[in-house]
Specification:
This protein is α/β, with parallel strands linked by helices. It is built from twelve helices and seven strands. It folds into three domains: 105 residues, ATPase, nucleotide binding domain (Nucleotidyltransferase, domain 5, 2-Layer Sandwich); 63 residues, Methane Monooxygenase Hydroxylase, Chain G, domain 1; 126 residues, no CATH class.
């Protein structure tokens, strides 16, 4: 009988629930605990191991399991919480969460996807760090506008330091891309589209590695740009986007803002939607969807952007 394992990852502990034996186990979330758990699961050879995304605390355990060829999937915590509510399980503890994750794995059987290689993880970490620094810079600039004179020098010094850090991380990203011929080729290909710059191209390469490998419907759903139906009987609800990868949408949002000004094809598309009575935000979202579809086709066919 195929077995399923659910793991609830916390900062200090790992709670495990294994089916069909309904066995509970607990390990410390440190190097020794993760290695011991990975060895145990490698010997058990479960059909599927599932854990929730836990702010990065799950990454070392995932790597340890993948190295031992254990099928592991990291899922959105909201999926398990909704599943637990659907089964009438309203209580929430680490042990209960581990059991719900295991039962979710048995019922849903989420698809196992290959783990990103070390280069992809490093690029993603650099891009995430740049985004964090930019957010801090915006906060400090906002504080500077309303700060009293006694704190201005400190804030100005911090702004200068943050600006230098952002420049350094940007250079690290550019250097890292240049050292990888395949990524350099893809980055140059994406940048042929008017509206896509270096930051947007690197974000898409790091956070959407499936670009060019899926059809337009699946890639849009993965990015959270696929309109979701909300119909019941004769009622036809408003289509909205939901879920997906927020940082990918942020990159496409900035690309769309640029494209509706400088890319004739996207500008014409945007204006046509406005003239048809669409709200500006709806039209902009449609442009994001169109840009993603175009970029997906460009990477799939290895073809630079051509306005025609």
């Amino acid at each position: 009988m195929e077995s399923f394992v659910g793991i609830d990852v916390a900062k200090e502990n790992l709670e495990i629930f294994a089916m069909p034996d309904n066995a509970h186990m607990s390990f410390p979330n440190d190097d020794e605990g993760r290695i011991a758990l990975a060895r145990l699961l490698a010997d058990m050879k479960p059909g599927l191991v599932v854990m929730e995304a836990s702010g990065g605390y799950e990454i070392p355990l995932v790597e340890a399991l993948v190295l031992r060829h254990v099928n592991v999937v990291v899922i959105n915590p909201r999926q398990v919480r909704d599943f637990a509510k659907a089964t009438g399980k309203l209580a929430k503890t680490d042990v209960i969460d581990a059991e719900m994750i295991a039962r979710f794995a048995e019922a849903i059987k989420p698809e196992v996807r290959p783990l990103k290689d070390m280069d992809a993880q490093r690029l993603q970490a650099l891009i995430a760090r740049r985004r964090q620094l930019v957010q801090m810079l915006v906060q400090e600039r906002n504080r500077l506008q309303i700060s009293p004179s006694c704190t201005r020098p400190d804030i100005e010094a911090h702004i200068e330091w943050l600006t230098g850090c952002i420049d350094k991380v940007g250079k690290d990203i550019a250097s890292f891309i240049k050292k990888t011929p395949l990524w350099r080729e893809k980055e140059n290909l994406l940048k042929t589209f008017k509206g896509i710059g270096s930051v947007s191209a690197c974000t898409l390469l790091a956070r959407l590695p499936e670009l060019g490998q899926l059809n337009r419907q699946k890639i849009a759903a993965l990015a959270g740009l696929a309109p979701i139906n909300r119909d019941s009987g004769k009622y036809r609800g408003k289509r909205t986007i939901f879920g997906g990868r927020a940082d990918v949408r942020s990159a496409l949002y900035m690309a769309a803002l640029s494209a509706i000004r400088y890319n004739p094809a996207i500008k014409t598309f945007y204006d046509r939607l406005l003239h048809a009575g669409k709200l500006p935000k709806v039209a902009l979202t449609a442009c994001m969807h169109k840009i993603l579809t175009i970029l997906n086709a460009m990477i799939k066919t290895n073809t630079p952007w051509c306005a025609r």
